[in-house]
Amino acid sequence: MTEAAPVKPDRPAARDSSREFVTPEGVDLRLRLGEVSDRAAALIIDLLIILALLVALTLLAAGVAVAVATKAKAPEMVSVIWLLGFFLLRNFYFTGFELRPGAATPGKRLMKLRVIARNGGRLTADAVFARNALRELELFLPMSFLFSRGQGVDAWLVSLGSLWSLVFLLFPLFNRDRLRAGDLIAGTMVVRAPRPLLLPDLARDGVSALPELAFTSQQLDAYGIKELQVLENVLRTNDRKTVAEVAGRIRAKIGWTDAVGVSDRAFLAAYYAGLRGRLERQMLFGRRRKDKFDKG
Amino acid sequence: MAELQLKSNRFREEREADWRRLEWLLSRIEGGAPSRLSSAQLLEIPVLYRQALSSLSVARSISLDQGLTDYLESLCTRAYFVVYGARTSLWERIGRFFREDWPAAVRGLWRETLVAAAIGVAGVVVAMVLIGHDVDWYYSFVPKDLASGRDPTAATAFLRDTLHKGGGGEDSELSALATFLFTHNAQIAIFAFALGFALCVPTAALMAYNGAMLGAFLSLFISRGLGIEAGGWLFIHGVTELFAVTLAGAAGFSIGWATVFPGQQSRVEAIAAAGRKAAIVMVGVVVMLFVAGLLEGFARQLIQSTPVRYAVAVASAVVWGLYFYFRRPAAAP
Questions:
Q1: pTM of the prediction?
Q2: Is there a contact between A198 and B16 if contact means CB atoms under 8 Å apart?
Q3: How far is B312 from chain A (nearest CA, A)?
Q4: Which one of A104, B197, B294, B331 has the lowest number of neighbouring Cβ atoms within 10 Å?
Q5: Residue A17 and residue A113 in contact, taking contact as beta carbons nearer than 8 Å
């Protein structure tokens, strides 16, 4: 049966971290999932910031108490600050920042992550609140188990409890979209939001050299799109040793005998431009040559 | 190789200025200064966004410049979130929350609310019956630091004092006490909500335990003939607080229920839908607990007469009941 059963469109290979995300205009933006390691780092940064804020508040309160010379009130002020401050920060630090246009806490921003609604709609305040309320279960519950002591039966209960709470802590490791329990509840997900610069087009400097280094079409047929992109990376990184090595390999592969002494980089740039021109022209005729093994 | 410029290169050069313009506008907005943009500039964004999107489509089909497609993907994503992420202003949002969203969400959870309340009441009854048989049960329900001397061995006079002289705290520490009560209860409520995700059972246990603690307190005071006064002491804030905790439990149940019985939707969708609705209730619960904390920390210490305490309790019950369950005419669309 060739009538395709409704294949789930967002079902790429398991290791692939990019997800389909179609805008109302019908263009797929191919978002990349946030790595678990990046997210953990973001969380640690955020927790450190919270801790620093609390310490700063305490010092400030102590300073005020000393300045106004009402030392009797100081313990009460400090306890209010820690109780209310920790409560507010614990519950609203994440929510507050994720409601801003960047949809990211300072930690997430540093790690180049942001929160989005999984269905592509806008991120609502309710969703942000829900995803952060679940932190109670995922983060603060294991923490409180970690800090509680017990003996005998209590100790067993504590260790069983911490095992149980690990289920929620490690939740993101066991599903395809790296959702934590809060993401699941709120219908959100965390994606990478890098800001690449518009890099110069490499084909520009290569094209001018092409007339001198006229590659034959057989020579240009040696590689496909995958190799072209590797070559693009080599040229952009511009590491002298790699450039020389890659140039040597390509020369050998296409049987290039150099009459005029062309530098390795110039050779690669020209070959890149030639290869890209050829592959792009093939693309216009509806043929994408995946890699060098793709004889189509 | 006669042509001196690739088609994809020419394509890029023709449009690059627009992309850069869009990038500049976006970084202004993301930098938190949308008000510094003129309205003409703001109107430019959707147009430039659609151009960039079509550039991305074209680039994907004609260009093999990876750097270019990466850049356009990220640019379009950023623009997408600015264009479609437009929110109502914060004040409008808060107004709508109190006018419509919160009562509607609470009404939607009436079944779960009844269940949570029933479990709580069951906890009260069980604790009272057990303590009626054997006083030692009291100690299993009420942790020592919460009891602060109010246990079956205490003298009746001491118990009466706790009802009228601010339980535990002195007047000078009123604000600290109110803060402590509020944060403590709010944390419990959020916890009850979060535990709903673990298939309802822990939430039910927490509800029952909360009820049992209440029952233990009540039975202690009733056994000393202080039932009426203890009721006033408890319900002046307890109506609001217990209602809030019950709602938090109900919110937890609705999520657990969606996890187990997703119905027509896929499980993930059902959980997400239930989670968003329950979150609205939870935001409200935190507000209610704040009110309860104020009543408990201040009103209870300042109002000493039992009838007035009951009056406040009844008034708060009527206010919350009308607010949540009295059907308002639907707002004009």
A1: 0.73
A2: yes
A3: 26
A4: B331
A5: no
CA–CA dist B114, B252 (Å, integer) = 13
Using DSSP's 3-state secondary structure scheme, residue A22 falls into strand
- Which of residues 39 through 68 in chain A touch B, CB cutoff 8 A? none
Count, residues in chain B: 333
Question: Whole-angstrom Cα distance, residue A290 to residue A273?
Answer: 17
Euclidean distance between CA atoms B29 and A275, whole angstroms: 40
Q: How far is CA A73 from the centre of its chain?
A: 48
B85 touches chain A (CB under 8 A): yes
Tokens read off for A236: 């952009």
Pairing of strands A31-32, A188-192: unpaired
The secondary structure of residue A100, as a DSSP letter, is S
Pairing of strands A113-117, A188-192: antiparallel
- Roughly what angle, to the nearest 10 degrees, separates helices A264-284 and A240-254? 60
ipTM rounded to 2 decimals: 0.76
CA end-to-end span of chain B: 63
As a whole number of angstroms, the distance between CA B23 and CA A87 comes to: 38
Measured between alpha carbons, how far is B322 from B326 in angstroms, rounded to an integer?
A: 5
Contact B249, B109 (CB under 8 A): no
A13-27: string of b/e by CB count within 10 Å (b at 16+)?
eeeeebbebebeeeb
At A187, the amino acid letter reads: G
Q: Which ranges of chain A does DSSP label H, i.e. alpha helix?
A: 36-68, 74-88, 94-98, 106-110, 125-133, 135, 141-147, 153-169, 181-186, 203-209, 217-220, 225-237, 240-254, 264-284
Tokens of A235: 């040229």
- Answer for the pair B255, B274: CB distance below 8 angstroms, yes or no: yes
Number of neighbouring beta carbons within 10 Å of residue B244: 26
Q: Are B74 and A204 inside 8 Å of each other by CB?
A: no
Say what the alpha-carbon torsion angle B275, B279, B282, B283 is, to the nearest 10 degrees.
180
Taking the C-alpha atoms of residue B203 and residue A290, their distance in angstroms, rounded to an integer, is 54
How do residues A19-72 score in pLDDT, each as one tens digit?
888 888 888 888 888 888 999 999 999 999 988 988 888 888 777 777 776 656
Determine whether the interchain pair A280/B63 forms a contact, defined as Cβ–Cβ distance below 8 Å.
yes
Please give the single-letter amino acid code of residue B154: A
Polymer length of chain A: 296
| Location of structure tokens 């993301």 | B30
Interface of A with B in 227-286 (CB under 8 A): 228-229, 232-233, 236, 273-274, 276-277, 279-280, 283-284
pLDDT in tens, A249-279: 888 888 877 666 778 888 888 888 888 888 8
User: How far apart (Å, rounded) are the C-alpha atoms in residues A23 and A185?
Assistant: 23
- Cα(B18)–Cα(B44) distance, integer angstroms: 10
> Tokens at residue A233, please?
């990376």
Asked if A83's CB is within 8 angstroms of B180's CB, the reply is yes
